[in-house]
User: Fold FtsX-like permease family protein from Litorilituus sediminis.
Amino acid sequence: MIAVNQGSLLGRVKLAWHFFTQEYHYTHQRLLRWIQGILLLFIVTLSLSSHSIQQYLQQNLQGLLGADAVISQQQAMSEQQYASLAKLSKKISVTQQISTVLTHQKKWQKAQLKAVDNAYPLQGELLTSTTKGDDGQVSANGPVTGEVWLDARLMASLELTLGQSLLIANKPFVVSRILQHEPDRLMEGHSVAMRAMINSEDMQALNFASDLIKYRYLLAASDKQITQLIDWQKAELPAAQLLHKQGQHPLALFWQRTENFLGLASIILFFMAAIAIEQIGQVHMKKEQFFSAVCMSLGADKITGLQISIVKWLFSVATLIPVVLILASICHFFVIEFLKETFSQLSWQLDLVQTFKPIGSVLVIFAVFHAPVWLALLNTSIASQFIGQSNKLNHWLGKLASVVVLFIVAFSYSDNALLTFMLLTAVTITVLLMIFISWSSLTLGEKITQQVSGLVPFALFMMKQRLVSKSTQILGVGLCAFLLLFTLMLLKDLGNTMTAYQRQHDGNLFISQATQAQMDYVTTWAEEKDVNIRQSKPYMYAKLLKINGTDLSEYSDKPSDSLATFSDAIRLHWTELMPSNNALVSGKWWQAGDSNWQQVSIEQEVMTDLGLELGDILSFYINKQSYQFTVAASHEFKPGAGSITFWVQMPSSALAHIQAPHYTMASIELADEQWSLLTPLWQKFPSLRMVSLKELTSLFDRTLAMISKVISGFSLLIILLSTVVILASINALQSKEKKKNSVIMSFGFSRATCLKLNVIEWLVTASITAVGAIAGTYIAGLLIYQSQFSLTYQPDFTWLIATLVIILTSITGLGVFASRHSLQSSVRELMAEN
Assistant:
């Protein structure tokens, strides 16, 4: 026995190291390292990946802006505004861009058409080639009049070769070069749209409506001029977007939002870890209290035992960190490779500062988890080890520590009160559901089988006697199964449900933007061709500038989906009556003929996300004029009447006071033989924005596929923690299980009987777990589909049954295998212990 040196700190450190090495291979220590390692691995990998993306975006901003600053807006500047802009910059290049359709013979393809002036490119290199696969040559200017440059994908889609002609708005253009790289590519937001480039003089000849063209003013300016430009843009062009090299990448907030969402999702992992740590803590606390009591019996005080315990914990995390760093670097590499599909130039690099920042934060959380053990050491005594009393205060401190950790994680990553509330509510409901199912199942099962003999009634009776410990075990395993099932099953059903709903109510072709003239023609065309127009709703574009007098850019510093959308112009719909696919949530809808036209209804989720209330004042910029509206009501989507809905709606009486171009959204049903009718329609109106349901479904499926990859990685962590939770619960109850088996064998039963009882217990545990997980997933599906899509959730029951069988087999097999040591007991051991 090593003597406890009360006076030497170095002696205590040596003693802590001695016992740390002795306990290193203990089961509860191994499980604790697994938990801490998994959590550290997730948070460090997330932090490294997010940092790499943000660094890439900042470098991307410097290299792909194509200017020192860019002003982008839907209308052309006036001569006076252009003259003022020229004084605030060294050089200007103006580009115009429109979404249009290019046709060649009977083929058509949607593309982004850009018109450039003779000053383009302002900065950077414009690369083109005359053969496919060529590295490209630097072009000093854009195309000359009458020529068009196409990217390789667009040429392949239209089956064009250099020297051939294509039609744009029924005007022929000669394809002269292959477009490879544009120096101002950043402004497309990493769009995958096909590209075409013409001379700006040709854009005027095409006679596109000016309100359909996006104008971009590329500026060469000094840092001082950029500062002046920022003030000038706010005063003169409040609805315009200004990007500059001193600022933030337009996608930076989006990726910050992504990191926050994944970080918030990690609350699930921390909750599972809390369950496992509480199970392990039962064993760990007893061993630490026993060691502290031994130290006190040798003359040491309570502080000595506490100090040694803390130093042992520090040794534990210190030996864990190098392993985590290596694994996190590997995971970070694979994440970067996965993201290269989106960001081709993204590269892997290790940042030690960025690595240790999240490690420090997570270690604080681990210390909170461990705090009940350390507090228990302050309350331990030699006498308590003889009488074996349990401290209920320590039990509740463990619960409190778990709650504190969950709130720390939620507070650290939350940028959306609604999302955070929904996630925490879902976890809470799941926990309560699991507790209810486990308690009611065991209690009811024990009551029903009271008068029946056999192994099953006896197993239920024994489980009922250990209701609290068994419920905790079921809760941990059940929550893991629920989370795994929830993440995989809902994604599987979501695509089919959305596609079926859109096919039923919206037809198979969407018109997202049509001018009044275009929509009038489409209506006549539909009547002549016997085409069914399912829905048709008008709107105008409006840019939100201020909320209650505060500029939108200053309203909130947290990333938000709603704020990101409102940073550009949104579709503002007008109507007298409540749309049939909307329902009033709060406030009062306006009446026909109401003289108050300056009122709006806002979608309820947007209200919550932005923290809006009834009576708030919103300032919208519409067609170069500013208008103020009061939030009079909030609405939400209601299924059964089509899916075209709007975030912001106003009374029809407002049209008498607002002069702005009107557009229409519509949905159409085309028969198979009618799709060929679209070619002449697009030749007449190349700027008509239409998209098929097949394209929308394909985009949705690609998005779900990407999400599924992320979820699969997340699910792997859930599976690992699920296994640890099961092993932790078995480890915590192992001594009691040994006693139970010894008592059973003392009545003359064999080990085989104990094994059968063990199998029955785990089958019951797995059954309750599976029922709870499936019920929780079904309820969550109902709530999410109703609140987010207002649809009825219809799961695949064949898939559910298969999942039930997998859960039963996996949990029972793992539980029986892991608890095999509890069968290695004997009556002699029981007598010796007594």
